[in-house]
Amino acid sequence: MEDHCRRVGAVANLIAHHLFLPTEEKQLLSTACLHHHEEGLAAALPRKLAAILHVSDAFDCAYQAQPFQHGDAGRILSALRSGADQGRCSRQILNALEECTCPHLMPAPSDWRVPVFPQAALQTLDALGDSHASIPHVVDAARRDPATAGAIVQLANSALYADRGEVSTLGLAVARLGFETARKVVASLAMRPLLFLRRMESLWPHSIEVADVAEQMAGRTGRIDPGEAYLAGLLHDVGRIALAATTLYDAARLQGLEQSGCPAVYAESLILRTDHAVLGGQIAAMWRLPEHLMGAIRQHHHPETATSPLAHLLYVAEHLTGSQEDLPSAARLGMALDGLGLAAKDLIGCAPSEVGSWLAAA
User: Fold this and answer.
1) Which of 56, 123, 135, 300 can bridge 12 by disulfide, Cβ–Cβ 3.0-4.6 Å?
2) Residues of the chain with pLDDT under 50
3) E runs forming strands in 106-243
4) Cβ-proximal residues to 125 (8 Å cutoff; 6+ apart), any chain
């Protein structure tokens, strides 16, 4: 309930700023939002403040019902518009909410400054995706980039393997790590230039964590390739790159909502009428990634609309890593688990690994 009240306050604050309400009224409205379920409180407010509170509360309640109503922020506002036409909420206040969240034109994808998908990474992923790939294939893929080769030797000589003596060659390092671990390291470091970005310091470690957990879960489903799950986890939040292209005004509003207690996807949906998952699907298309991977990236926050088990996998993996990018939803978690054919007990032990933690810090 407290989180709901904070979000209502954040939305109400947007409206109040747009209407240039005096400081005293803003403070009164803010206090009212935090306690608006107390009986008789709304009735004691001035009419305009009560109307702002009502519209803000209605928006947040409708957003929470998304898993059942399949409505984004645009559809929610449209439904509220119908309610205003029938006298259930203030048309003036709803107009203000629509105006203060109306996005400036999102720059075209060509202006997003999306990095080119590295050719070396494509070759590496193709090599490692071969069902007949083996340790020599990993060694060959790692040699494509001296930094990657060095990282593999460094990991093999790290505290995680300290009891086995020192190795000095790439082949011995890969043999020590084993095929699956070495493949994970090569794939991760091939993607690192795309995900290790200034002003988005959390993107790289979060992507590694989700990839790590997604790989583990894939093995338990018996029908999703763990290597593909790992790649999907690495790239699932790549749409955050596009957010850097938003206008300063939109970026400030997004930051304001998040600092006021609104999850990132909630803020993006309200301010941009889209979110980083949808933008990520567009980036995946620009990179000509496989269609099912594009779909998983695009739908990983909405398992209720996804048909891809990979999208369901990403939703659960984010849940297990404690991601708070959107409102927590037991309904969505249940839908995603059903889509994977798993139960909650099947997730026991799925957690970021020591190798994953080493990569996140690399």
Assistant:
1) 56
2) none
3) none
4) 187, 190, 231
CA distances from 357 to 197, 213, 215, 281 (A): 18, 11, 14, 27
Question: What whole-number distance in Å separates Cα of residue 225 and Cα of residue 53?
Answer: 48
3-state helix, strand, coil in the chain (%, to 5): 70, 0, 30
The pLDDT value recorded for residue 277 is 95
Under CATH, what is the fold of the domain 119-361? Hypothetical protein af1432 (1.10.3210)
Residue 10 · residue 260 · CB < 8 Å:
yes
In Å, how far are 59, 98, 215, 256, 270 from 54, measured between CA atoms? 9, 15, 44, 21, 17
Rounded to an integer, what distance in angstroms lies between the CA atom of residue 1 and that of residue 215? 35
Residue-wise pLDDT for 184-213, tens only, equals 888 888 888 888 877 778 889 999 999 999
The Cα 124–Cα 130 span in angstroms is 10
Output the pLDDT for position 127.
63
Domain ranges of the chain: 2-101, 119-361
